Amino acid sequence: MTTLADFNALPAAEAEAFVAPCVAIPSWATGLAAGRPYTDVDDLLTTAERLGAAWTDEEVEGALADHPRIGERHAGDGASAALSAREQAGVDPADVGVQARLRVGNAAYEEKFGRIYLVRAAGRSAEEMLALLEERLENDPATEIAVTKDQLAEIALLRLRGLVT
After folding, report:
1. Whole-prediction pTM value?
2. Which domains, and CATH codes, for the chain?
3. Residue 147 pLDDT level (bands cut at 50, 70, 90)
């Protein structure tokens, strides 16, 4: 964790690299770096939220490659993968029944929507994430991309809150 003053003082490229693990959308990191200096953390988060609201469907689709499937905690070696592993702490490896249903649900979701199922996992149990998955399988593609975009923004904001004090 770093202070807002330290984040404000970073060179632009370092500021972008610092926030990049929050979400794999380069325009978001660039926009956050360009918006400095921030007066307080709420100012930073408001800017982050505004920038997230402007994400295109293509940017969201591209960012999904940086996330593991729910129930799978590994998606590479970087900082984002480490964050995902912590966020999915609610998926108990001993609960094989829920894990099996998550695998089936993930496959059904990918078949229907052509991308991984993304949900803010932090603070949610495996059962909650499974229930949301099963509920979202009823969505049409336009509704689901909007829900996915909202979930990605929630994840990015939570991660950003964890980086800057």
Report:
1. 0.87
2. 4-163 (1.10.3330.10)
3. very high
